[in-house]
UniProtKB/TrEMBL annotation:
Residues 160-309 form the Aspartate/ornithine carbamoyltransferase Asp/Orn-binding domain. It holds the Pfam family OTCace_N. The lineage of its organism: Bacteria, Bacillati, Actinomycetota, Actinomycetes, Micrococcales. Heterododecamer (2C3:3R2) of six catalytic PyrB chains organized as two trimers (C3), and six regulatory PyrI chains organized as three dimers (R2). Keywords: Pyrimidine biosynthesis, Transferase. This is Aspartate carbamoyltransferase. The keyword Transferase applies. InterPro entries: Asp/Orn_carbamoyltranf_P-bd, Asp/Orn_carbamoylTrfase, Asp/Orn_carbamoylTrfase_sf, Asp_carbamoyltransf, Asp_carbamoyltransf_Asp/Orn-bd.
Amino acid sequence: MRHLLDTRTLTRDEAILILDIAEDMSATQQREVKKLPTLRGKTIVNLFYEDSTRTRISFEAASKRLSADVINFSAKGSSVSKGESLKDTAQTLQAIGADGVVIRHPASGAPAMLASSGWIDAGVLNAGDGTHEHPTQALLDAFTMRRRLFGENSRGRDLDGISVVIVGDIMHSRVARSNLWLLKVLGAHVSFVAPETLLPYGTREWPVTIYHSLDAAIREANPDVIMLLRIQTERMHAAFFPNEREYARNWGLNDVRVAGLQDRTIIMHPGPMNRGLEISAGAADSARSTVLEQVANGVSVRMAALYLLLSGERGESA
């Protein structure tokens, strides 16, 4: 695998390979010594143009547990704040010998540009670009679903027949997009729940069922998984719903709705959570919740992705 830029172009076999390798990585994390020598001598740069806690720390932990040297780059306090272009930054990383670049960028398509530009020879891994995609988040979500629904001995399994309901700010969510494409290739049925104003143009042409009522989605889609999305106010430049109270009443997963779920239904959230808005404290902290598992599983999944990008022969882009 040369790069990991999206989930839309991943095949079923490629996705399951990543998930199965993540199982192996997860097993090593139960040992007293968690480090593997796999990427010793490799240099990985975390190139973050947007704020991040979970994703950046997760990639740093994954890189170090594979024994790579890690350079953390933040746009704030760097030459980017002086007007340096992505090209010049990339050429600087090429000059210092970066083998892999994990990039988060506010512009959709920036990782693909970096990967195809010829500015740098490193493998590129998309850690979130604009409202486009966030492939490793979708992979760790699928990994978490597979483990919760089928147990830890789920190697080789896809998610055929699983019903996943994704609720909230679909318009601005790269997580929703990456999950949709990955879950469909793994055989799951995906439903989106949102007010009309928070659905991107063209959504009805995607392979997804649309609901405007969370109660209707729970009743009709019979979900195995409910995934809540954060309202991304930093990307909003208009009023997309009347107020927070109205949003929570119509689209928030509150304690009453949780009580009406089937016993098997799990609750997911990519974080950070707005408690009391898209999810109640009771739902977030319940035994159904996988929020902290998602964070822990993210390290194993990102170890798997970095291993495939950097440990062997370079293949074609994924």
